Amino acid sequence: MTPLLPPPAPGGPGVRPLTPVSRVLRLCLHALLFGLLALAAGRAVADSAPQAGWVVAACALLAAVYLAGVRAPAVHSSARAGAVWLAGLCAAWAALLMVSPDGLWIAFPLYFLELHLLRLRWGVAAVAATAAAAIGGFLAHSSAVTPGAFLGPLLGGAVAVATVLGYQALYRESERRRELIEELITTRAELAAAERSAGILAERERLAREIHDTLAQGLSSIQLLLRAAERSLPEDSAALAHIGRAREAAQENLAEARRFVRALTPPDLEHGSLPAALERLCTGAPGPRVRFSLSGTPRPLPTPYEVALLRIAQSALANVVRHAGAGRAEITLTFMDSSVTLDIVDDGKGFDPCAAPSAPSGEGGFGLPAMRSRAESLSGLFTVESAPGQGTAVAVTLPLPAEALS
How many Cβ atoms sit within 10 Å of the Cβ of residue 313? Predict the structure, then answer.
């Protein structure tokens, strides 16, 4: 858990891939350790110290133990192996301290290794023990006691601990930001997919309405006009055959247009009727218990009517789940002689309908203004009854078209 090595799993050495910064810091640690060892060996040889040979041998031993641990995969994946390697390094360092006072400076890179390979509380204890050993080793070789002999190792240990704690805080913050960025990327992808899906469904509904309201109605009118022309002509008229063929062509194209409209029906209506789609909507709704009830004799409705009623039910139920805080809700579909009514009632916290926006705000497509617009586009009536603390009732009534009444 040091700035010189990648953060390990709790109680063990790091297993995460090294970042470029971690590689540079690790190289700095290597350079620091080998530089200090070279300095200690070089000074012993240059000063012709009595134990110069032993100093060089101790430096070589410490370098060999360090290199063996750096190149050993077990040290990077096993807490036990890392601790054994650290113990070997400390033993080699103790041998160096016995023969050279310059071994004191090796304590600084050892601080970071101890804090990296051990849990924090054990790492701090190891740093304190290392500082004490460094002070004791220096005093054993020096006849004069100076404040620097104590302050150097102690300040070095304090700096190492503070550096490691600061790095850990920065690393945790970096990890939180990385996770947040990943969540944002995932959410953005999901939102884009949802927007594409919503756009496709909206375009399908628009095309279905346009075909139903223009092409299908035009072909139906043509058929009625041709039928009237047939009745007004004498039975032996030569034009009757041409009118009959024209009426058959209009009938075939009208059927094709209706099949095309059915193919553009929303997925919820593709495999069943409107009551079945509403019942599935209630069954799969999260949050409050939602019950569906059907009143009257169901009859086939034009696709734009079924789509509008289903979308209004979805919108109202979404508002119940998100805003109402309700425990129960009920959706009722009622077929009457000349109209169809959809009621959505909940026992939630309610609201003041006068304070609700009267027009779409652009912040969402399924608010009350959007529901009202859907109903009014089919000459329907949309009402909302609510009060704070008294739940909400949404009702939409659509007059049945002539083809649905026949």
Answer: 25
